[in-house]
Amino acid sequence: MACPRHMLLLLSSAIDVPHHEASGGGASKGKGAILTVPARQEKGGMRRGMAIIDLVLRIGAVVAALAAAATMGTSDQNLPFFTQFFQFEASYDDMPSFQFFLIAMSLVAGYLVLSVPFSIVSIVRPHASGIRLLLLILDVVALTLATSAAGAATAIVYLAHNGNSSSNWLAICNQFGDFCQTVSGAVVASFVTVVTFMFLILLSAVALRKH
Amino acid sequence: MACPRHMLLLLSSAIDVPHHEASGGGASKGKGAILTVPARQEKGGMRRGMAIIDLVLRIGAVVAALAAAATMGTSDQNLPFFTQFFQFEASYDDMPSFQFFLIAMSLVAGYLVLSVPFSIVSIVRPHASGIRLLLLILDVVALTLATSAAGAATAIVYLAHNGNSSSNWLAICNQFGDFCQTVSGAVVASFVTVVTFMFLILLSAVALRKH
Lengths: 211, 211
What we know:
2 copies of one chain form a homodimer.
Chain A: H1 5-73, E1 77-78, E2 89-90, H2 96-124, H3 129-162, H4 177-209
Antiparallel strand pairs in A: 1-2
């Protein structure tokens, strides 16, 4: 063969190198696949676990918000008598704050039910950060709504229990004990919703940071 | 030459390819450096801009929270007369909800002042996501505190303005008009704080996602 030896060497090396590179690349790819897939799986698994906790907390918040709204909505009490100063029926309709409470907690419960599918999507695709961000922002809005309703209802319930001597507002819970008990239960359920929302936002923020 | 043409072609391509790769790699590296440094600067600049907006909003929230607390704290009104049913002095001390409002807004204002240095650090180092996450979580806690105080004070102010015929609670703003005006102003300032907090949390969440 008249082909010079160094050309052949070059040729063999030229053939070898891609082969080596190819096999090496394949090996390193395989090794990389072995090394990186568990890391990605571990990270994805942790974020999937956080998404599952998010779903569980969200369902708990749905239950708490529905309980608060339903308890407030069914807080009628009829008395067998009435005096000059007090009606014989107490209902959430009598207080604008309780009406706001019912509307706000119903809205929050509806939002929470609608957000469950998005939470499930973020379990299936743990690396989609847009859904996380959307849920976080809407959660903050719902948290504000639920907290303001809870605060307003708490102020009125406190007034109904204790009255206020400075402004001459008498306590009405002496007459309407069952009504006050029911409304207090609704307020407690709304605060459970608020605390659950804070944990939901904490989870979303941590998941966004680990992205 | 007895060397087959396809061997030479292979050889030339084998020689060419690394050379091309080397120069191409260098060129693409150089180009990549030209392309990525402005991208990083642009991204850092955008996040620095968001951090600056965060600082400005935070200072505005400090002003609003301090205004709410100070207005509520100075809402005394003395009347030149008193009747059988009403005291001749109205103050935030008379209502537990207003006391809670004052304490909560003072706490929020204190937290906001303490959080300004962290906001400045996140301007200097826009890529530190830990500070962002810390500020977001503490902002959510402060938002909840401010919102509950604002809701409770709003419920009482509404009652003071309008009264409630069902529970026989009379409106006291006929007697204490200045007191009611002052307290209403404090409530408005607290809602400004709440809205500012929501924008702060939105900014932090978007900055965390872009990390």
